[in-house]
């Protein structure tokens, strides 16, 4: 029977042929190459179930596109059920911006008041026998000047200061933010991938020769 059919390894090892040389839908584009490697290793010695390589690859492409929506949903469900959140292990950058308006008002009153009295008097003495005798009891006022003054100064001051201030704070968190360790998170994720890939590979078994 091997004389009329091809094993998958013959396509995979050929310099001119490739098993996956076509585009197809997948539940996680970053994991597509890993799945292709598993697929080839699993069916490496199995004979394709079609007469030509072109027909086999066309049926493989159609098969994957048909069943992939189901596995996409399964993949997301598995991640949610196992509480696998990749956001907990990515860099997180948060920026906080605050704008502050400052206004200050200073009001002051000052009052200065001066009251005074200026009294100037002229006294004369009694002169007798050519001698001058100066005595408070003998002084007689001959003139009197009284000056009264009242000065009042009033000042009002009002000063207003305004300003604007912008504050920007950036917080950067790196690594595992949650309570689950990175090793445990990775283990759960790998288990999910292995399970889904095995189911996908098994669904493609009818594309190969079945031996009863």
Write a brief structural summary.
With 212 residues, the protein is an alpha+beta fold. The chain has helices at residues 8-12, 32-42, 53-81, 182-203; strands at residues 92-124, 126-128, 131-133, 140-173. The protein folds into two domains: 8-90 and 177-207, no CATH class; 93-170, no CATH class.
β-strand number: 4
N-to-C SSE string, H for helix and E for strand: HHHEEEEH
Distance between the termini: 14 Å
Poorly predicted runs of 5 or more residues: 120-125, 131-143
Q: Please describe the biggest sheet, giving its number of strands, its sense, and whether it closes into a barrel.
A: 2 strands, antiparallel
What's the tally of helices?
4
Helix percentage: 25-40%
Spatial strand sequence of the major β-sheet: 1-4
The amount of beta strand, in percent, is 25-35%
Quote the average pLDDT: 73
Radius of gyration: 53 Å
Shape estimate: rod-shaped
Number of domains: 2
Task: Kindly name the structural category.
Answer: alpha+beta
Protein name: Collar protein
Task: Give a verbal description of the structure.
By secondary structure, this protein is an alpha+beta fold. The protein folds into 2 domains: 8-90 and 177-207, no CATH class; 93-170, no CATH class. Helix content is 32%, strand content 34%. It is built from 4 helices and 4 strands. The protein has helices at 8-12, 32-42, 53-81, 182-203, and strands spanning 92-124, 126-128, 131-133, 140-173. The strands form 2 sheets. Strands 1-4 form a two-stranded antiparallel ribbon. Strands 2-3 form a two-stranded antiparallel ribbon. Helix 3 runs antiparallel to helix 4 (182-203). The chain starts with 7 loop residues before the first helix and ends in a 9-residue tail after the last helix. The model is unreliable at 120-125 and 131-143 (pLDDT under 50).
């Amino acid at each position: 029977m091997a004389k009329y059919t091809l094993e998958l390894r013959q396509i995979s090892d050929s310099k001119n042929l490739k098993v996956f040389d076509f585009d197809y839908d997948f539940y996680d584009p970053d994991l597509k190459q890993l799945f292709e490697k598993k697929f080839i290793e699993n069916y490496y010695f199995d004979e394709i179930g079609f007469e030509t390589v072109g027909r086999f690859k066309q049926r493989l492409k159609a098969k994957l596109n048909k069943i992939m929506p189901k596995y996409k949903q399964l993949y997301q469900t598995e991640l949610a059920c196992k509480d696998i959140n990749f956001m907990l292990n990515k860099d997180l950058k948060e920026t906080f911006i605050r704008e502050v308006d400052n206004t200050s008002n200073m009001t002051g009153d000052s009052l200065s008041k001066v009251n005074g009295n200026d009294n100037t008097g002229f006294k004369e003495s009694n002169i007798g026998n050519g001698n001058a005798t100066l005595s408070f009891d003998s002084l007689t006022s001959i003139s009197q000047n009284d000056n009264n003054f009242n000065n009042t100064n009033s000042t009002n001051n009002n000063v207003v200061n305004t300003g604007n201030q912008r504050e920007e704070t950036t917080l950067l968190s790196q690594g595992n933010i949650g309570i689950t360790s990175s090793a445990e998170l990775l283990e759960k994720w790998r288990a999910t991938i292995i399970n889904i890939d095995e189911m996908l590979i098994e669904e493609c078994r009818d594309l190969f020769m079945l031996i009863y």
